[in-house]
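Researcher: Final request for today, and then I'll write up notes for the group meeting. The sequence and the SMILES for zinc ion follow.
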Amino acid sequence: MKLFMATETHIASAAKNAEDTLQCWSCDTLFPAGSHFCPHCSKVQKPVAADYFSFFGLPRKLNLDGSTLEKEFYRLSRKLHPDLFVRATPQEQEWSLETSSRLNDAYRTLKDSIARTQYLLSLEGVQLEEQSKAATDRARQTGEEKKQVVPPDLLEEVFELNMQLQELRMSAEKDPEVIAQLETAKKNFETRLQGLHFELKKLWDAWDQAINRGVPSDDPERLQVRNQMVDLLNRRSYIRNLVRDVNEALQN
Ligand SMILES: [Zn+2]
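Model: Predicted protein-zinc ion complex:
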């Protein structure tokens, strides 16, 4: 229910702006943007360019009730099901398909807390460092050094780890001691990842509170939380890459 209530509040405040009011193509009813169907005649409406939060009528906040989002996703999926549009006009069929595809993208992004955070940061104008698996593989293939800054407090550990990894790769016989060291290192990094997740949750709270208080996007408070999230996600992906490297080395 929370999502629905949030939706209503969001729509109510959005509707104050004339640009956010739409008119049904079929029955001319005026309705607030953010609804994909006319509230009067229920006809599907022309898709409007909107970010994934707006698609669900949600404010740009990071704490999100997953089960409510899921319910809303299934509710809209049912309403957009192609079977319901077999007798509709080609235009309505096209709009429903387009909205349906947008719905899937929006849901996939918002239901995952990390993807949601990354998406929000991209809306806030941040470009996250490319530290995905694809970027790593590409860097390996081209032999280029991947742009990845070692978080300062990890320097020593990473140095140590790289030595151990190299030792393991170079030796024909796997040294059980090196393997044990790598297993330990892996556990330590995994513990750090859990810690980062806890820190991230606190940043979501700080962000949401700023949004609730209507703090403007260029306010230092908001920028600070934003930058802390960027830093944290970069650290997270750096450590995840390390864990992956260790796993690969241990499997070979
Ligand atoms: Zn209508």
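Model: The radius of gyration is 24 Å. The first helix runs from residue 2 to 14.
Researcher: Thanks, that's everything.
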